Amino acid sequence: MADPFSAPPSLKPPDQQTAGRIAARIAESTLSDEGVVTSTEEFRQWFAERRRRDTALVSKAPLSELSGWRTEPDTGNLVHDTGRFFTVEGVETQVVSDGLPQTWSQPMIHQPEIGILGFLTREFGGVLHFLMQAKNEPGNHNGVQLSPSVQATRSNYTRVHRGNAVPYVEHFQQAEQHRVLADVLQSEQGSWFYRKRNRNVVVELEEDVEVGENFCWLTLGQIHRLLATDDVINMDSRTVLACLPFVGASLASAFPLADDLRSAVTRSCSDEQGSLHSTARIRSWLTEMRAETEVRARRVPLRKVADWQRSEFDIAHEDGRFFRVVGVDVRVGSREVRQWSQPMIEPCGPGVIAFLVTQLDGVLHVLVNARVQGGLVDGIELAPTVQCTPSNYLPGPRPAQLRFLETVLGAGRDRIRFDSLQSEEGGRFYHARNRYLIVELDADHRVEDDSFRWVSLHQLAEFLRHSHYVNIEARSLIACLYSLIGSTEEVR
Description:
The longest helix is centred in the N-terminal third of the chain and has 15 residues, at 16-30. This protein is an alpha+beta fold. Strands 6, 7, 8, 9, 10, 11 and 12 form a seven-stranded mixed β-sheet that branches. A hairpin with a 6-residue loop joins strand 16 and strand 17 (339-347). 22% of the residues lie in helices and 34% in strands. Helix 1 (16-30) crosses helix 7 (248-254) and helix 6 (235-242) crosses helix 12.
């Protein structure tokens, strides 16, 4: 059997010298607060104009009246007339751990096609820039947010909707013609998608490209400052940024950083030195969790999902928790298609996504949770320390995965290193927002148990080079954590 950490020939990592140059260039971009966009004020004016021009009218609609969608009579599944895009189906999940089965069923989005989440990069003035797209998604509560250069499903970029072509997609369909900085299939939300994956890819251009009015070139330093602002950098941007090569070692050797936490980040160098556990041991721990916890998920007709009820306007759990499947009609001014209808998932409350971090022998470690989610291909991936919607849980004993919720929510300001509200994927989720937090603890090895482990940043970066190891909530939070390396100035 092939080693899962061995990249296929087409994606073999660059040699050490080339990798070092790439890391150094990413590090320089991380610490560059000026570039093609020369000031915060210039960005604000451009972004405000994009939000002014790119407006959307999104209204709730009965599920039975969504244009182009129908309910299958035999299954109750919501399907598109073309048979493409996605379906809303039922999924039954059974988790067997220590011989004790736990079973539940729920609606999920089934979208087997693999989309492209891709950044174009190019040097300007010797500094690497990333082409960002100001994109209005129907589920965004505030309209326009910054997405990758290309954010498109296969149905979109093959123009099943008969709309306009997706700009720049040809650069990712022919990625081998460019320098590839990152390229990996990653999972989507395992609680709402059934085995959904997207290609997270970053390519560097040498030639000029025409920049549309909804696009702009930003350095990583500028993007990182924007991450500290609520609801500007969208989820798809965050997951791709997390897959970039980790540059802690380059920063440590090239730039003096006085701040204690930032120095600890940079000392998470690209070897085993300073890590509490070896990478092999962390991988073995995750493999053992997967082997000893059977996660059996299967698609079932939506009409047979237990404890969920359908009304004219939604499909909701009988006690009002978790989420609803709702229908929306959308009219927008700047998309490949200007008008459409679709089902969406609407969570029943805001969530909390948090990492506890600590410095062990001067190296920053992150407390990860081996978390079960029925929609994941392998059932379990590395997740944040806390990943939950608090309102979903009834009074009484907390489940094991909520062990650190009170620690996070009760942290003093002197312990909070990052705190912002971020939106989740606005193309499928309606007004889904989470509070993203990074909270620092004093060094303490004892918080580990069967499902939690301290992992250094370079180890997380190694797992991110491969599929099915780090879930999307953790990847979003890793992008926020990386932003602490650069400027701490917030863009307001």
